Amino acid sequence: MKKSLKQLLLHVLDYAGLFPPAKLPLGQTVSNYLEYMESEDNWMIGKLVIPIGKLDELEPYHLRFDEFDNPIELSILLRGGNDEKSFYENLEEDLILLEQKISDANFSFPIAEVKIPHSFYETKNANEFVGEVKNIFKDQNVISNLFLENHFVQDWQAALENLVQELSKIHGIGMKIRTGGTEAQQIPSIEDVATFIRKCKDSDILFKATAGLHHPFRNYSEELGTYMHGFLNVIFASIAHVDNIEAILKEESIEAFVFEEERIGWNDAFIDLQQIEKGRKETFHSFGSCSFMEPKEDLVNLGLWENE
Question: SS3 of 114, please?
Fold first, then answer.
């Protein structure tokens, strides 16, 4: 694999085998993740995605975790809430619980993810919302990054605009975009994904993605009867200095991109190793996927990953 592509995909995939469409049992999910972490492919694997309600169910695997030199890194899905009040209460309780659980086994919780309450999109009071979240977040020392999941509801653009402006003033809280689903109507349009990326980039907000990014490039799903987004499209569009993000997200072929040892390009836009490293640290964090083998096999079939 080219050095540039390996840098782009370094620890980029947070394994979410518990979730659709895979919906694997917890035991199989943990077993798969640990197998990937012990393989030569572990450079692409990021965190293991676990709902906070299943932390106690990991107890049978604690001895297995102890076999690793470094703690097993978990991305914790927090409960959230239907309105701001329940959201704040649950966030505070969840973070307290994580502080209590951190010493249970050889694992860590470097990141957490939580859905923004729907009521926020009605009030759009980002100053109050971010202020409350910040106050709760700063009182804990377990989570390094908290990602707030956006909802593509009516007038979401204005709500996001207010939100990222406030988030730009603080450190450690970023955004999350859902790029797919198990039904066609759950897949956001190119325009919506581009708008999300653009607003985060303009405000220097770190974000992650989840769902639907099983293939490197935009592709048509016969099962869903619609197009799905590609993870290389999304990552490149997030990092490259380009205005036409929509055009990058539309690309369906490897022929549209150039993969060189020390840079990746699209048209006349290139990102080199330094820009890729900076972009992954400051703009695009990772993406959640219920499959690791599917993305890998696609990269192998495209000749981008030498299958040893």
Answer: strand
Render 146-177 in DSSP notation, one character per residue: EEEEP---TTHHHHHHHHHHHHTTSSSEEEEE
The DSSP letter of residue 262 is: S
Are 212 and 245 a contacting pair, CB within 8 Å?
no
| Cβ pair 148, 175 in contact under 8 A | yes
Tell me, yes or no, whether 308 lies in a domain: no
pLDDT digits (tens, 9 = 90+) for 13-70: 999 999 999 999 999 999 999 999 999 999 999 999 999 999 999 999 999 999 999 9
**Nearest-angstrom CA–CA distance, 234 and 250:** 10
Which structural domain, as residue segments, surrounds residue 256? 3-301
In the chain, how many domains are there?
Answer: 1
Q: What is the pLDDT of residues 169-202, one digit of tens each?
A: 999 999 999 999 999 999 999 999 999 999 999 9
**What's the pTM value of the predicted model, to 2 decimals?**
0.97
DSSP states along 42-85: TTTEEEEEEEGGGGGGGGGGHHHHTTSSSPEEEEEE----SSHH
